[in-house]
Amino acid sequence: ILKRNEIRRKTVKEKKKKISLTTQIFAALILGCLCGVLMHYVVPSGYVKDTVFVNGIFYVIGNGFIRLMKMLVVPLVFCSLVCGSMAMGDTKSLGKIGVKALLFYLVTTALAISVALAVGHLINPGIGLDISGMEAVETSTAEAVSTADTILNIIPENPIAALATGEMLQVIVFALFVGILIAKLGERVDTVANFFSQFNDVMMEMTSTVMLAAPIGVFCLIAKTFSGIGFSAFLPLAKYMIGVLLALAIQCFGVYQILMKVLTGLNPMKFLKKFAPVMSFAFSTATSNATIPLSIETLDEKLGVSRKVSSFTIPLGATINMDGTAIMQGVAVVFAAQAYGIVLKPADYATVILTATLASVGTAGVPSVGLVTLSMVFASVGLPVEAIGLIMGIDRILDMSRTAVNITGDAVCTTIIAHQNKLLDRDIFNADLKKQN
After folding, report:
1. Under DSSP, is residue 340 helix (H, G, I), strand (E, B) or coil?
2. First vs last Cα of the chain: how many Å apart?
3. Contact between residue 305 and residue 423 where contact means Cβ atoms under 8 Å apart
4. What does the DSSP 8-state code read for residue 365?
5. For 212-255, where are the alpha helices, taking DSSP H only?
6. What is the C-alpha separation between 69 and 83, in angstroms, rounded?
7. pLDDT band per the 50, 70, 90 thresholds, residue 345
8. pLDDT grade for 147, boundaries at 50, 70 and 90
9. For the whole prediction, is pTM greater than 0.70?
């Protein structure tokens, strides 16, 4: 009997240990949604609800967790890139990876906008909409940046300032220079090389430690978001929301997975299953930059992608690959044109595809930045910028969804490039997820 009791206790302990971080994040996501909806409809507005919980506990813990993740981004990306380029040592290989990643990101962004325009005309979100009965929100516009300035902005005038302000493209360029030169100098700079390698280990350990708080952070972020969004706010723009979400689903579960299967032969379902926690994390935080550490870690440990590739392509993708944002902009163009009775010609749609693709380059991976760059897209085809104010009220939930698509596109690109450069461990990719957890 004593032996049986001991066995039962061990079994219970093992089951408790098997509750992985993945499961905890998903559970926190669902519980946060339920808590937020209940607070919106059941709990009356007042000091306890608004001040103590929504703008107090949920706000502080949720945003505190995002700040912790953002705290890791710049030092982790910088050290990972230095170590990756240092280990690779070959500028030709880095150049090939960079060109492939850039082309992939630009092509998928153009595809995303095309999908969005097609879905927009299928759903017709702006037809029959009564604009007069809707409340517009004040919008901010983005200044157009020339192609020449966009290229020049990649080169840091002050690397320390770029690190301090989190200018990711500039950080990437500087880190690559440092890593390549360390590899070139060899034994003469062993001390510097060891410093970056060891500091990179420290940052990865710090990432794992911070991620232990992910379930609590995700719960608070989602609870705060849903406590402020009522279903009544969605009804006038239901067709617009459906259009955006449908286009996002086609891009994420159709376009990306077809590209992965065709270009690598890997099982897309295994990829989605293993990368799902990162997608849910991106959904809850609505910021691509905060997801960088978790993306790199998941690609390495669960999908077998070498950090030599992911440490370069993931930060690059978080900066220039905004497929989800491009999809929102495509559907928004159709919505605004139909709502205001403006007929767009095929040349206008070509302009939208080009403008939205270029607007995604250099866009910061922070919440709701897509609405700011949307003003550039509207201006390019003569649509009223005021139309953006109509969709701002419900943008938060869509922003969360498109961030999940953005980072999935980054990961698919990274996996494909790693496969092509023989830097993908297929045994790890195909391994059982339960054993990895």
Report:
1. coil
2. 32
3. yes
4. -
5. 214-227, 238-250
6. 21
7. confident
8. low
9. yes
Please give the Cα distance from 396 to 391 (Å, whole number).
Answer: 10
pLDDT digits (tens, 9 = 90+) for 39-89: 888 888 888 888 888 889 999 998 898 888 888 878 887 887 788 778 766
Q: Nearest CA to 176 among 198, 154, 191?
A: 154
Q: Which amino acid is at 290?
A: A
Residue type, 1: I
pLDDT at 137: 47
Cα 202 from chain centroid? 24
pLDDT given at position 245: 92
Tell me the pLDDT tens digit for each residue of 148-170: 776 787 788 999 998 888 777 78
Give me 42's structure tokens: 């059941």
Percent helix, strand, coil in the chain, to 5, is 80, 0, 20
Specify which residues 424 forms β-bridges with: 305
User: Are the C-beta atoms of residues 74 and 163 closer than 8 Å to each other?
Assistant: yes
Structure tokens at 166: 């989190």
Measured in residues, the chain has a length of 437
DSSP 54: I
Distance CA 356, CA 348 (A): 12
Phi, psi of 157 (to 5 degrees): -75, -35
